[in-house]
Amino acid sequence: MEEIIQTIAVYALPVIFAITLHEAAHAYAARYFGDSTAYMQGRMSLNPIKHIDPLGTLVIPAVLYIATSGAFLFGYAKPVPINFGNLRKPKRDMAWVALAGPGANFIMALLWMILAIFLGVGEVSEPFFLRMAQAGILSNLVMFAFNLFPIPPLDGGRVMTSMLPNRYAYKFAQIEPYGFFIVMGLVMLKLLYFWMAPVMTIAHTALRLIISPLTIFLN
User: Fold this and answer.
1) Given 86, 96, 120, 132, which residue has the most CB atoms within 10 angstroms?
2) What is the 3-state secondary structure (H, E, C) of 49-114?
3) Per-residue pLDDT reduced to its tens digit, 194-217
4) Residues of the domain holding 123
5) Element (DSSP H or E) covering residue 128
């Protein structure tokens, strides 16, 4: 139990940041492309309280983590309200608004990776901060890959809808009411791993390439 509590303490801040900035990025992008719905409802904010769902963000992840000894973890935040009809070019801009969330997670993973490098260079011996930096990288890579899965209402599903011809986009969008159950089924059957693993690997490799000049400089 003590180890589980320590793990939750390590992951708490990175996960809250990952969720908050993911949702805020959607809101910022939506307003940029013409929809102020999230802004008017106070969701274009970096305040975690605005985005946290008490049940989906706190209770469910904690219970699942403890119940499965860390083998299974799932959670969600309050979705940012977006009226796609208000976007200047709804079908095109939908993709950019959707990509803003995973894009924010990619940038956060990069920042946590840079922090981990500086902690190593500074010879910080406190394992808590090193573990938190690693948790920040992992949490954001997981959110990046998971949300890009091409099933609505996930961000990848929005992007796919945007890319398809109108006739097929309409039919594909009709999956949305069942999308959550489809994804949960894939998670429970451990089939989503075949999407998550390669996407996370590619993203991690890209991050390593981006910071390689810094790594070379510091070494």
Assistant:
1) 132
2) HHHCCHHHHHHHHHHHHHHCCCCCCCCCCCCCCCCHHHCCCHHHHHHHHHHHHHHHHHHHHHHHHH
3) 999 999 999 999 999 999 998 888
4) 2-218
5) helix 127-147
CA 100 from chain centre, in angstroms, equals: 10
What single DSSP character describes residue 123? T
Q: Which amino acid is at 100?
A: A
The number of domains in the chain is: 1
Distance between CA 73 and CA 62 in Å, rounded?
8
Instruction: Tell me how far apart the alpha carbons of residues 151 and 157 are, in angstroms, rounded to a whole number.
Output: 4
Say how far apart CA 200 and CA 192 lie, in whole Å: 12
Handedness of CA 66, 14, 176, 185 (dihedral sign): negative
Catalytic residue (one of 2, 23, 126, 176)? 23
> What is the spatial distance between Cα 84 and Cα 53, in angstroms, rounded to a whole number?
23
Q: Is 23 labeled as catalytic in the residue annotation?
A: yes
pTM of this prediction?
Answer: 0.90
Closest to 33 measured CA to CA, from 79, 83, 97, 102: 97
For residue 41, give both structure tokens: 């409802």
